[in-house]
Amino acid sequence: MLFQQLREKAKRYPKVDLHRHLEGSIRFSTILDIATRERIPLPTHDPEELRRYVQVHEKELPDYHSFLGKFRILRQIYSSREAIQRIAYEVVLDAAKDNVRYLELRFNPLALSQAQGFPLLKVSEWVIEAGLKAAEEGKIRLNFLITITRDTDLEDAKKLVQLALELRSKGVVGLDLAGDEVNYRAYPFAPLFRDARRKGLGITIHAGEVTGAGSVYEAVEILGAHRIGHGVKAVEDVNVLDLLKFKKVVLEMCLTSNLQTGAIKRLDEHPFLPLLRLGILVTLNTDDPGISGTSLTDEYLLAIRGLGMTQEELTAVIRNGILGSFLPPSEKVRLVEEFNREFESMGLPLIPRGEEVWIWR
Asked: Cys staple from 64: which of 261, 285, 286, 333, with CB 3.0 to 4.6 Å?
């Protein structure tokens, strides 16, 4: 099959994205427009030069901290309610145009609020309002995760957990711990995340991206993670793999991002397919499509053409995304039925019935 035909087919697949950061998904044209309109000082106003500050470019060496550094400029763009709502609206609409049918969009209210001293609740409501408007227009199911970074003061982290609990009725379904896992451990946040889990929030922790399998163990056993962001280093320890299987922990994997951060050196070394074939619940996601220059369709193409993912494995990955979501069981059932109707029309293997619900141990 020619590449363009394969790409068009992959774009038609109904998809689930469980790991997409609002802040890393901004359109480049929007960065330029907001910066010009609101007179935001940037390191350069030359578009091609600016790309090097906010996107990974072809000749850039893979580097974890360089990748995280892209957010420093991006966070200057959250300069007004209008800017924040435009960004949220466009991010959700872009996902819908890529045929993402269910999106859990994560955002960091603290980072958004600090740009201009906005109240945490207000910036969160702005994101949610604009996101839901785009979701309605784009016919996409949408929920939100509140992100806390590892360098956050514990008092501020408590405020973010409370904020997430207060916003459950508006679509916030979980908490995410993100940021520099090299210099900051996750365990100080354990009491907060454990308590949030007991109160019904889903828990996802960035771990095992560039640090070892022990960080994945810590996220699951100490913080109570339902899901792991990335988790590529879990493959280094068979005991951690057994733990992931037993507790039905879902790995949110992001191929392009992992190449760009240096989490893996080459695509053919990525543990995505080996882990899937071991029975680990892996999913495919975008992470930061604006920074990485990718889409979920692109990630599927990488897995199909670059790793040899079969149609049966494709269906399994999408199934894992539905079942590993923080949706209520009844909505998972509806989503499975909806996806199966489309899989059948496309000649793809169906998601087995009776697997719509599981209990996390």
From this structure: 261
